[in-house]
Amino acid sequence: MAESLPSLAFLGAGSMGGAILQGVVASGIRTEGITATNRTAEKAAALAALPGVTSIALADRPEGNADAAASARILLVGVKPAMVPDLLREIAPSLRPDAIVVSLAAGVTLDTFASVLGAEAHVIRSMPNTPATVGKAVTGLAAGSAATAEDMALVRRLFETVGAVIEVPESQIDALSTISGSGPAYVFLLVEELTKAAIGKGFSEADARLMAEQTFIGATALLDASGEDPAELRRRVTSPKGTTERAIAVLQDAHLDEVFASATDAALARARELAAGA
Hints:
It is built from 12 helices and 10 strands. By secondary structure, it is α/β, with parallel strands linked by helices. It has an 8-stranded mixed beta sheet with strand order 5-4-2-6-7-8-9-10, with helices on both faces. Strands 1-3 form a two-stranded parallel ribbon. It starts with a strand and ends with a helix. 32% of the residues are buried.
């Protein structure tokens, strides 16, 4: 990984923008400056403490987005999807000629960016997930028609400070969001349910949470460290005619494969509704 990044602006450093921002800072990578904007002084204050970050409250400085845009090579657009066109109109006159505009906004197409900024604007659509805060994100990147290989390399480097990166055509971004974007919630739900099962077997809530959470953390760490296929690791835990085999049989009888396919299909249908403005 290169040792530095160009200047960055996070326009609307909310939950996702803030996660990426914190991850970049925590990674220790050098940048040519980071500016972040938020509507309220309270939100801006939370980021102002981060080293090397200039945090702007738009309530105090209404022209803050345009100022931040003028200062940055890479701009990350993190406002709510419905607010994106207005923000783009606001910053368009201030963009540097070499600016790369990166969308964090779910459901907002590259065409939407091009319609405001022009077809020649260098735009990349991203779909990160919240483990960015701990450097364990999965981020999908889709390049707009004017984005160059150098643009993609720079933006890839930015997101690699907070995890893994997959480059996909824009047509796959919504599908990717149903797996990695929403995926942390699926894992948390499984931890919740395993915790409830432990409480039902007489364990205290604290012990139940410790068992369930650390089992997931440990299993994923083992998966990561071993490089093995998850099916192989599952087989190693599942002794023939043993207790785990009996439990796995119940889970498979519940058609988990169909449940996950249906769940991700439902998420994809909703993503398409949102893209259509529903």
